[in-house]
Structure prediction request, 403 residues.
Amino acid sequence: MNDFLARPFYLHNSIQHYPWGERGKEAYIPRLLELDVESDATPFAELWIGTHPSAPSKVVMDAGEDMLLSELIQKYPAEILGPSVQNAFNGQLPFLLKVLSAREILSIQMHPNKEQAHELHNQDPKNYPDTNHKPEIAIALDSLTALVGLIDDQELRTVMKLYPELRTVTAYDQNPGQTAEAAFKILLQTAEQNQPGIAAVIESIRQRLLRKSAFFRLRKEKLFLEYAAQYPGDVGLLTIFLLKLYTFTRNQAVFTPPDIPHAYVKGNIIECMASSDNVVRVGLTNKYKDIKSLIKILDARQKPRLFHRGLNFFKQTYSVPTSEYRVTRQLLLSGQNVVERGNGGLRIFIVIRGIMQMEWQTKEGTSTFEVQKGQSVLVPAILDRLVIRSSGMSECFKVDVPA
Prediction:
């Protein structure tokens, strides 16, 4: 048995500087990691914790040297992952954990299921870099505004009354009883075939909303106007009216399965997903857009799952209908401690507030390990029992793989 692995390990993680990320010293990720940021030039969009090759994490070993987490897992799969996770996911870490910080809207996008991911990767490996699906959960750290899923068919009638310009580009009048899914698909097909027509509708709505008093503008109208100048003629602007708009407060969450159109608008979140970077985009982005693929895989039968604050103020587990991950939030007051058991699988922690001490038993006695705000830790499967203590108020998120 490799007893030297029966202990927590610090992780070094990569930051993604996508242009929509928060900027400056008050941005969430620099504050979390206590980085010294001198200017607003660099956006801090995502912190990735996992083995995805686009931004892999490294493990701090005893000698002070870093080793890729993927290499450590490859070398000791049973000890790190646990036999059940090793067997279920072919010796790979099945999830990717992120801290995401959005100052601006992300693209209107969707993620494929496994079968679709294989097909997209085979057709276009450059834009679809892996063969995995990407069911994801977003947990608000302060607040999150997001567009998730299509509006109800009944609401579609109201939308067409408020914005009659949409009738022409969705063929609404030619399809009595049209569903929101049909309207969304026809809108995207029109964008493929008649971009000038889409641009004309956008400009007509924009001019009309500009004449409307700002006080009386609806939330989606404000969002539309905010991005109309940045993305002129972009069909993504019109999809805003066909998607549901949510605002989540601290610790509320939304789980988005594959084949649902969505976009995070603004906020700071813990995000966890199956380990994939497959994104099918259709609008509000300068990245590659693939309208044909999104139309093909859109499935209105899929619905997001919303999580409200749990009754337990100190602990909340976000159980989602996917086998790759489970996220738990844990809050500890000064002097509190909890006993954590791995149940045969690995755990990854990230502390977002305060300082925590981890304790575990070795042949020599009790060992301790301090984890400060912004630090993340791998706890291998070989270490089962762990005591977490707090000398002041502290909070962390844990990701494990459900048994």
